[in-house]
Amino acid sequence: MSDNNNKDIPEVVEIKEKKKLFAETSVSSNATNYAFSPVKYTAESVISLLEDPQKNASSLQEVSLWLYYNSGIYYRLVNNFSGMNRYDMYLFPSTISKFAKGGKKKSTNADKLLKEYLDVAQLVEKLSWKSNFRNIGTNLLIMGEVYLFKIEDNSGVIIKEIPSNLCKISKVINDGLYKYSINMSKIGTAAIYNMMPKRIQELYDKHNAGSLPPESYSENNYVIIEEKEAICLSMNQFVGTKSVPPMCYIFPSILRLMEEEETEVAEAKANNLKLIHMKYPIDDEGEPLLDEEVIRKAHNSAKANLPAGVAINTNCLELTAHTLQRTGNVAAMNRQTLTENVYNNAGVNSEIFNGNNSNNQAILSGLVADEIIADTLNNVFENYVKYEIKTKKKNSLWLPRFIRNTKYNENILEEQAYKGATVGLSRMKYLATQHYSPLEAISILEFETENGIDDLFVPLATAFTQSANAEQDNGRPKASESDDGKQISDNKDATV
C-alpha cells in the first residue's frame, strides 16, 4: 500500500510523526555550547558612536572603562601613558622686579622672597602631587575627565574623585580646568551619599529639602559646586558638558582584535568536539530493520555514557564531516595584523610592550606620539597646580614649571640641565631632574650654604684638582745638569 493511499489513516500518520520526532531528536550531546559569544561592544557599534563623539561622550566613557578592565592591550597603553611622566617640578618667579633694580639685588626683599617661596613650596608639597597625579592621570586617560574635590587640614591633603557618571562640566576656569555640577538625584543611596565630601552632603540635604535657590542649578537636579576645592580636569581642549576619552579612536581596532580572539577560542572548542555516528540498518524500501524502540534505547544508552565534549547522532544516513576552520597559521597572522593595527593607530612602538629592546634608538624615535599624550597630561596638571597656588596665594610671585621628562627621556633632560647649571643656569631645574621637590631643593641648598658643607667636603685629589707643586712632585722625572752643563734625567734609564 502506497503512502498516498494511507496518508489519511490515523495509525500511519502516528507512525510517521514518531519517526519524524526521532529524526529531529536523534542528535544528542553532553558537550558545552560552543556557539560564538560576542564581546559586550562591537567595533561597528563603537564606530557609530564615533560619528558624533561629543554627543555620545558618556557612552564612549562606558566603552573605555569596560576595555580598560577587559583588554590587556588597552590596559597597558593607558598605564604606559599615565605612568610615563616623572612629574618633576620646580618653582620660578613670574617677574624679576622684586629681585633687582639697576642690575643690583634688592637685599631688603631677600627674606620676604624666600619666605614666600617656602610658603608656596610647602603648599605644593601638601598636594603629594606625584602619587596623586599618576592615579588621576590614569582616570583622565580612561574617561577624558576627572571631577575632584580637595579635602585639606593641617596634616595634609586628600584629593577625592567624584564618579564621572554623576557630574557634568558647567563652567570654564582655565585651559583644561572647569567647574562642575552634580546630579543630586543620583546620590540618594546611602552608599553613594556616605562617600561624598561633607560639603556635597550638605548640598544634597538642602536639595532634598527644596531649600536651594534656583541659581544653584545648572539644569534639572544638577547643582553647581562653587567651592574652590571642586575642580574638573579635562584632556579635551574643546568640551561640552562631558569629555571624550582621548584614545577613543583606537576602540574599533581593539574590539576587532578581541572579536578575533574569541573566534579563535570558539574554533578551538569546536575542533575538540567529537561526534559519534550510530547508523541503523534499513531494507530496500528504506524502512528500519530494527524496531524503532530498540533503536531509541540504543541511542539513549550510548548518550548516557558520553563524556563531555562528545555528541551522538543516530540515523540511517551516511555522515560526512566538513570543516571551515582556518589553519593555525592564518589565525595567528590575522591576530598579529590586528594587534599591530592597534599599536599603529595609537601611535605607539609595540616593541615597548613586547620586551624586544634590540633597537633602542628605534624605540626612542617612536616615542614622539607617545609623549604628545604625556605632555597633555603635564599641561593639565601644571595648570591645576597654578590654580591651587593662585587660590591660596592670590598675588604669588612663584609659578610651577614641570620638567617634560618621562621614563624614556629623563637621562637626556638631566644631562642638559646639568650642563646648564655648570654655566650659570638654574640649579633648581637641575635638582628637579634629580626628582627633588621645590621644598626639598631649597631646604638642601639653604642648609648646605648656611652650614658650610662645601668647606667640610674637600674634593679628593685627581689629575684635574692637583696643584702645580703636586704636579712637579708627581709628574715626569726632573731634569738636572751634569758637570759639563748638559741636561740629564733623574731617571737613569732616560736620556734627554
Shape by Cα distribution: elongated
Structure class: alpha+beta
Low-confidence stretches: 31-38, 485-496
Count of strand segments:
16
The tally of helices reads: 20
The major pleated sheet works out as: 7 strands, antiparallel
What is the residue-mean pLDDT, rounded to a whole number?
79
Beta-strand percent range: 15-25%
Q: Please give the alpha-carbon distance between the first and last residues.
A: 136 Å
Percent helix: 40-55%
Radius of gyration equals: 38 Å
Mind sketching the topology for me?
Layout: H1 3-6, H2 10-24, E1 27-29, H3 43-50, H4 57-70, H5 72-84, E2 89-93, E3 100-101, E4 104-105, H6 110-126, H7 129-143, E5 145-153, E6 156-162, E7 167-174, E8 177-183, H8 190-195, H9 198-209, E9 217-219, E10 222-224, E11 230-234, H10 251-271, E12 274-279, H11 292-304, E13 310-315, H12 328-346, H13 351-354, H14 360-365, H15 368-392, E14 398-402, H16 410-422, H17 427-433, H18 438-450, H19 453-456, H20 468-474, E15 479-481, E16 487-489
Parallel strand pairs: 12-13
Antiparallel strand pairs: 1-13, 2-14, 3-4, 5-6, 5-11, 7-8, 8-10, 8-11, 9-10, 15-16
Helix pairs in contact: 3-10, 4-5, 5-7, 10-12, 16-17
